[in-house]
Amino acid sequence: MDSKELPSILRDDNISEETNKLISSLPSHKDTGGLKLCKYQGCWYSYNTLQGVLNFQSGFHPQDTDIILASYPKSGATWLKALTVALLEKSKNRSTSDPHHPLQYDNPHGIVPCLEMDVYHESSSPHLDKFSATPRLNVKDTLVSWWLFGNAILKTEQTRSDLQSKFESFCNGTIYYGPFWEHLLSYWLRILEDPKHVLFMRRRELTCVRGLGALLSLGNLRSLEVKKTGKRNDVNHKDYGNKGEVGDSKNYLTTEMEKKIDMIIQEKLQGSGLKL
Hints:
Elements: H1 17-24, E1 28-30, E2 36-40, E3 43-46, H2 47-59, E4 66-67, H3 77-90, H4 102-105, H5 108-111, H6 139-154, H7 160-172, H8 180-193, H9 203-206, H10 213-216, H11 218-223, H12 225-228, E5 231-232, E6 235-236, H13 255-269
Antiparallel strand pairs: 1-2, 2-3, 5-6
C-alpha cells in the first residue's frame, strides 16, 4: 500500500530531523502489513507514533486532576474510554438517555484522545486527568482483534497465512506497541508501588459496573450513529469496534496457537503475583 493511502497515525510524514536521527540508530523491522516499526525503550512503534511518544515525554507535566487511561491496543480501550466518560457524566447527574450526553454524539476516541497519536501532535500543553487502568479481553482475543483491526484499516483480506504471521509477531513481542505481557506487568507493578493513585481492573470486573449497562453495552455503542459514520486519524469509527466477546478467538486460532499463547503468558507473568 502506498504510504499516502495509510491512516495518518501510520504515516511517517511528520517526523523531526532529530527523531529521524534517533530512528536510524534503533532496531527496526516491518510488521506483517509492511508497516515500518522501530524499537524504543522496549516497545515497537511506527515512526509517526514514536514522534508523539517523544513529544509526550518531553512536554508532559502531570496535574493532580489528570486521569490517564492505559491499555494495550485492541484489548477493550474503546469500551474503557466510554465507561470513564459515562462515570464522569454520572457524577454530574447527567442521565445516559440525555441526548446531550457526550457518548450520544461523539466517538469515545474523540472524547478521550490518545496521548501519543492525538494530543501531542496538536498541543504542547494539554490538560489531562490522572487515572491508570487496563481493560483486557482474553489475551488471545486481543491478538485476533489486532489482526481484524489491521485488515480493516489497511483494507486487506483476512487470510490464514497473515493470521499466522501476526500470531508469530505477537508471540515474539515484535508486534506494534511491543509485548502484551510487558504492558500488563508495567500496570501491575505500578499499582503495587502506588495503590492510592492507580486502579488496575480486569475486563470481568469492568462488566460488573451497574446503572450504565444500556448506554455502554457493546451492541449499543456500535449502533450509535456516531459509530457508524465519521473518521478519526483517517480510520473509520466503525473499525475501532469488535465483537467484544471473551473467547471469540476460538473462531480463528487453532488449539496449538491458543496453548502456545497461554504458555508464554504464564511464563512471562511468573513470580509477579498477577494472575489472568
